[in-house]
Amino acid sequence: MKKILIFICMVVPVLSMHAKGIQEDYKSSDNKSQVSYAFGMLMGSNLLSTNLDFDYDAFRDGFRTVLEKEPAQFTDQEAMEIVETALQLTMEKKLEENRLLEEEFLARNRERPEVQVTASGLQYEILEEAEGEKPKADSVVKVIYSGSFLNGSVFDSSEDGGASIPLNMVIPGWTEGVQLMSVGSSYKLYIPSGLAYGKEGIQSIIPPYSTLIFTVELLEIVNENKTDSELIDPQLDSELDPELIIEENYSISE
User: Fold this and answer.
1) 170 forms bridges with which residues in the sheet?
2) Cβ atoms within 10 Å of 49's Cβ, excluding its own
3) Cβ contact 129:183 at 8 Å
4) Nearest alpha-carbon partner for 172 in 196, 205, 141
5) Cα–Cα distance measured from residue 122 to residue 18, given in angstroms and rounded to the nearest whole number
6) Which pLDDT tens digits describe the chain residue by residue (254 residues)?
C-alpha cells in the first residue's frame, strides 16, 4: 500500500505543471527547476501507463494537504481503497477492450477463403505447401519464423539460419500448427490467446488477450537421437526467443 502512495506523490510535479497551462522555459532556469521538471517528465511517463482520468486540481490539493500537514478528507486506508478500486476498474476495462478486439479479428479472419480453422480454434494459412514428413508433438524442428501482433508490430523472429525448437516445450498453438506442416512448407499461424498466453499475457511483453501471428517455414525435423545440448539452438538463449515461444510454465519466471 505504501508503494502506491509513494508513486502518487512522485507524479505530482507533472500534474502541477499541467495545471499551470503555460510552462516556463526550464532549459534556461536554475538547476532546482530543471531537476524538478526532468523528474516530473519521467514520473509522467509512469502515470500514462495507469490510463486513469485525473482531476489535476484535486490531485494537487491532496498532495499539498499531506505536505502542509493539513486535515485530510480521507484516511490513508480510504485513499488506498479508492486508488486500488480505480486501478482495478481501469484494468478490467482494458482487458475487455482487448478481448473484444481479439474476438472481432478472429471472427473476421476466419471468413477469408484462404484461412483454415482447426477444432481448437487455431487459424492458419498455407503460404507454400510441400510433400514430405510432418513433425510429431515431441519432435524438435528447425524453423525460420517471425511473430507479430495484430497491429503488425514484430515482437520476435529467428535469425537467417533458423532456430531449433522442441514442440513439446512451446505454446499449444505452435505445437499444433507446426505439426500440420511438411518439411519445406511455409504457413501463417493465427494463434488465439487461448492457445498462447491467455487473458494474463506476459507483463511488458505480451498484452492480455493477444492473438499472435507467426509466419513459419519448416526447414527440418531434427534427428531425435541427438543430445539435448545439440538439439537446442544457442540462438534460443538470445533476447526474446525463449520467453516468447516457450510455454510460460516452463521457463518464464513471474
Assistant:
1) 246
2) 7
3) no
4) 196
5) 47
6) 444 444 444 444 444 444 444 567 888 778 888 877 886 677 667 777 777 777 778 877 887 888 788 998 999 899 899 989 988 998 899 899 999 999 999 999 999 999 999 999 999 999 999 998 999 999 999 999 999 999 999 999 997 788 999 999 999 999 999 999 999 999 999 999 999 999 999 988 999 999 999 999 999 998 654 544 444 444 434 334 444 444 443 333 33
Domains of the chain and CATH, by start: 2-73 (no CATH), 119-251 (3.10.50.40)
How far lies 175's CA from each of 23, 56, 88, 134, 220, in Å? 55, 50, 34, 12, 15
DSSP state of 149: -
**pTM (two decimals):** 0.68
Q: Please tell me the distance from the alpha carbon of residue 167 to that of residue 169, in angstroms, as a whole number.
A: 5
- Residue carrying the nine cell digits 485525473: 54
What are the start-end ranges of the H helices in the chain?
2-20, 31-48, 56-67, 76-109, 172-179, 228-231, 241-245, 248-251
